[in-house]
Design brief:
Radius of gyration: 27 Å
Shape: flat
CATH class of the largest domain: Alpha Beta
Helix content: 25-40%
CATH superfamily of the largest domain: P-loop containing nucleotide triphosphate hydrolases
CATH architecture of the largest domain: 3-Layer(aba) Sandwich
Strand content: 5-15%
Number of helices: 15
Number of strands: 14
Length: 417
């Protein structure tokens, strides 16, 4: 039989396989090719992840953040430095000097300022490196023995992210959002959690610092059930929260008066920067000293300005407007936003205090009726103006035989395509 008609590896002929790729002196079938690719994939996954981390410099990470996160320059730099240094420490762990010194991170900033998005960017990047990142919400955590999730659940999620590869999990990252919700009653006057919140903080101390934890693989625990041991010493913990009311504690400490003849006028945006936060402020807020001590690096994020909100709409690789334009393109239609429309959307977002998470809702409200009728309108151009934002009525330009029939004239020459 002609060698070109037989797989050189399994000796099956072209009638017994789905596809046979013939070379000059040998052939390979689709089955052997799939096995080879799977072997290469497994070998790559089992490779030492540290070897891939020599190129994860702070500037490299910052550049990746810039593609998706608008503003927050200081926060992006600090996060990049902490993550880069953490994996440098793991890479050169044979050095006695670098064997200790894990630096967990606390991110403080208002809702939708980019805290979770920054970690999503890291997750997308690190998944290519075999580094798992698990996301958890502190509002679901309870002390052991109470209804809810205990702190070991976070470690279980991390194991699930890397198919229960313990070695990879022990070099992963755990992101805990809404960490301010486990604070006890504070001097800012808020009660975000009862006494069990302090119990959760105590339960987190061990894994934040580094300990051997026993994780139950299943969703339910039972006596005698097999557990997985995981060392948290090299797991990087990044906690985040809005810490609403913390600015009042900071103001009281810094004696900034807002009334009287010598009052210092503070801009509204300055109240939300938290840039002057100190350990004592977090303790007064309701975090226990031991917990704060295990988060030595604190990153603060600011509310976005109107200009930054406009950039959120248009600049990132996955910008909201680019997403909708792609959807319209699938229906052979072009979607255009005027500069005035973008300005109006950002103004409305700030006025209603709906932050970046509300931007998509605003645009959805403007375009819903048009998207419902889109298939009957194509091919066409849809122009969103300032008036469109106010009335939810867009301008439709029909395309007939190469000519554009404008139903309503656009009043702006500057448009975002």
């Amino acid at each position: 039989m002609n060698p070109k008609n037989v797989c050189s590896f399994c000796q099956k002929d072209n009638l017994k396989v789905e596809k046979l790729i013939a070379g000059k002196n040998a052939s390979i079938c689709n089955e052997c090719l799939e096995l080879a690719l799977e072997a290469l994939k497994q070998e790559k996954n089992e490779a030492n992840i540290d070897e891939d981390f020599w190129d994860i410099s702070p500037k490299f990470l910052k550049n990746e953040f810039d593609k998706f996160v608008i503003g927050q320059e200081d926060a992006k730099k600090q996060l990049a430095v902490v993550v880069s240094n953490h994996y440098k420490r793991l890479l050169f762990q044979s050095s006695d000097v670098l064997q200790e010194g894990k630096v967990n991170l606390l991110m403080i900033g208002p809702t939708s300022s980019g805290k979770t998005l920054l970690l999503k960017v890291l997750q997308k990047l690190f998944s290519k490196k075999g580094i798992p990142i698990a996301f958890s919400d502190a509002t679901t955590l309870t002390e052991a023995g109470y209804v809810g999730e205990d702190v070991e659940t976070m470690l279980l999620r991390l194991l699930q992210e890397c198919d229960f590869n313990v070695e990879k999990a022990q070099k992963g990252i755990i992101f805990i959002d809404e960490i301010d919700k486990i604070a006890t009653k504070n001097s800012a006057g808020s009660l975000s959690r009862d006494v069990s919140g302090e119990g959760v903080q105590h339960a987190l101390l061990g894994i934040l610092q580094g300990k051997i934890a026993n994780v139950t693989p299943g969703s339910k625990k039972s006596i005698g059930q097999e557990t997985i041991q995981i060392d948290t010493s090299d797991i990087l913990f990044i906690c985040a929260g809005a810490f609403s009311g913390l600015e009042k504690i900071i103001d009281n400490r810094t004696n900034i008066s807002s009334i009287g003849l010598h009052a210092q006028i503070k801009e509204k945006n300055d109240l939300k920067t938290y840039s002057n936060v100190e350990t004592e402020d977090l303790i007064k807020y309701g975090m226990i000293p031991e917990f704060v001590g295990r988060l030595p690096s604190v990153v603060t994020l600011q509310e976005l300005s109107k200009e930054q909100l406009i950039n959120v709409l248009t600049k990132p690789d996955n910008a909201i407007i680019k997403q909708y334009q792609q959807l319209f393109k699938c229906s052979n239609c072009e979607l255009i936003f005027t500069d005035e429309a973008l300005d109006e959307i950002a103004t409305l977002t700030l006025k209603k205090k709906i932050s970046t998470r509300g931007l998509k809702g605003v645009i959805e409200k403007i375009l819903t009726e048009t998207m419902f009728e889109l298939e009957t309108l194509k091919p066409c151009k849809v122009v969103v103006t300032r008036e469109s934002v106010r009335t939810n009525k867009v301008e439709i330009q029909h395309v007939n035989d190469g000519f554009i029939e404008t139903l309503e004239d656009t009043k702006s020459s500057k448009i975002f395509r």
